[in-house]
Write a structure and sequence with these properties.
Layout lengths: L3 H17 L6 H17 L1 E10 L2 E7 L11 E3 L3 H9 L1 E3 L19 E9 L2 E9 L5 H38 L10 E8 L7 E9 L2 E9 L4 H19 L4 H13 L8 E9 L3 E7 L5 E4 L2 E4 L18 E4 L5 E5 L1 H4 L10 H11 L5 H15 L9 E8 L2
Length: 399
């Protein structure tokens, strides 16, 4: 038996290598070797191999033995009694001579007891098998391999989740424009700050011809992956409708039908969509989104809601409204993450503060106005983490 202090020192070293080692296609193979190198002689453990699940069987994919794989069992049937024992118990020592996970071991003249444990991740399942030679101790084997199994499961699960989050981040980025459009007579700037890695805010631009372009900003309720998935569906639906040059009302009716049938935990979307021409005529629909600000000279107007949020009811009537914008006018659109930004006293940033900042900076460029709003909101919250997704879109008519 290993002296406890030495045993735990080696265990700590082994677990650190599992937790921090480079994860590549040979990662699991390296774990076999690390176990054998660290504890082979002390725990009387060796001859490790890995079986990978493939439909109704586990296929041998790796062996640390130098002997030919012809002498090894190439596959384990998932419905066999021995494999079921491993899957049920997570770790099983086959010290009963009547049962073995690899029957060829029973034909070995040398004393050899198989021990097996299972490792799982979102993308697969494996069975690790080792041979125990004379002198092994159950408590040490179970403690060591259970610790390895638990950490491996956690490591693989964490990387699987990380991979999915990274994919979600890429999807989220694909929903947002990579740059502002160059439209004669206008300055356009936008930015979105998710509360976590991904969020439910989105915005985009579109252009029908040289004399008319459009834009929209939306917010799927909640945040995180469910909201991001809903935002993806919304942007996809809007882009398809715009590509087919459908009327805005028809696009929103189709989108509402899709959102109503959604099974996601979040199923409401606020949306402001507008079309503006070179003469400054703005036609828009505000489906329950925070009212954008229109600054014309010394006056500040709000482009109030013209209907309910999308997804609330299966049949919604969308009403289009109109306003004229003069040269020098600025339209500022935003999500409620800006308005609901709180300070340490629990007070919201609010619409009045937003209007004051926008009006004070109205003569600056669209990009500068956007930055001033974000800077003020972030400062108001004293640099704390954003609790909701925040988006600002600024459109300034130059002439």
């Amino acid at each position: 038996m290993l002296e406890p202090k030495e045993f735990y020192r080696k265990m700590d070293s082994l677990l650190n290598k599992i937790g921090q080692g480079k994860s590549d296609k040979n990662f699991l193979y390296k774990i076999i070797r690390e176990i054998e190198n660290t504890f082979g002689s002390d725990l009387r453990i060796g001859c490790g191999r890995i079986y990978d699940k493939n439909d109704d069987e586990f296929i041998l994919i790796f062996s640390s033995q130098s002997q030919s794989e012809d002498n090894l069992v190439s596959k384990l049937l998932i419905n066999s009694e021995s494999v079921q024992l491993v899957l049920k118990n997570k770790l099983y020592i086959f010290d009963d001579s009547r049962l073995s996970i690899e029957m060829s071991l029973n034909q070995n003249n040398n004393y050899s007891i198989p021990v097996a444990f299972t490792v799982e991740s979102h993308g697969g399942q494996w069975i690790f098998v080792f041979e125990l030679q004379s002198g092994w101790i159950r408590e040490e084997i179970e403690f060591c391999l259970n610790a390895v199994r638990t950490l491996l499961n956690y490591r693989l699960f964490s990387e699987s989740v990380k991979s999915e989050l990274e994919q979600a981040v890429q999807i989220q980025k694909s929903l947002l424009p990579t740059s502002s459009p160059n439209v004669d007579g206008f300055q356009i700037s936008g930015y979105s700050q998710p509360a976590v890695l991904v969020g439910g805010d989105f915005y985009d631009y579109f252009q029908y011809d040289e004399e008319e372009f459009g834009f929209y900003i939306g917010d799927a309720s909640g945040h995180g992956i469910p909201a991001a998935l809903m935002a993806r569906d919304a942007v996809t639906g809007l882009r398809m409708g715009i590509e087919q040059q459908l009327k805005t009302v028809h696009i929103l009716k189709s989108l509402n039908s899709v959102i109503c049938k959604s099974v996601y935990s979040t199923r409401f979307i606020s949306l402001f969509i507008g079309e503006i021409d070179t003469n400054g005529n703005l036609f828009y629909i505000n489906a329950g989104h925070p009212s954008p600000i229109l600054i014309c000279g010394d006056e500040v107007h709000q482009l109030n809601s013209t209907g309910m949020v999308i997804g609330a009811l299966p049949d919604i009537k969308f009403k289009q409204s109109f306003v004229n914008t003069n040269p020098g006018s600025t339209i500022i659109l935003f999500s409620d993450g800006i308005l609901e930004r709180q300070n340490k006293f629990g007070k919201n940033f609010g619409i009045k503060r937003l209007e004051e900042i926008a009006f004070r900076n109205k003569d600056k460029s669209s990009h500068e106005i956007m930055e001033e709003i974000f800077y003020a909101a972030d400062d108001f919250g004293q640099g704390s983490n954003w609790e909701d997704d925040a988006t600002v879109l600024v459109i300034k008519k130059l002439k």
